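Slide 14.
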Amino acid sequence: MKAAILNISGDAGLLRSRSLVLESAGYQPISASKLGDIVQACKQHEFAAVVICHSTGTEIKHRLMLTTRSCCQEGTPIISLYLGVPEECAGADVAVAAADGPEALLNALRSRIAPLSLGQAA
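Slide 15: predicted structure.
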């Protein structure tokens, strides 16, 4: 079974392209752009990780982190992308520079998701 990743962005193009990257890496991306959709997704799925897009403003990003921490299962890692400075991602488990490209995001996911959640032997 593929590890489900909650993919959050208010930018439809970035949401779509990040979903393609996640899918091609063997994950099951579940995309959401609105707070209500995020809460609903957390109720319906058990996520291996949450990815928050760099296009999200810092204040909204922090609100999204609080929301996902309260509605997703405990311990779900939050990976936040940034364009400016890593401090934009305060509160996330991992901050990844968007400029480092998709491989940096995938490396962060691999480092935070337990092998068993990927369907692999430990």
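Speaker note: The longest strand covers residues 4-8.
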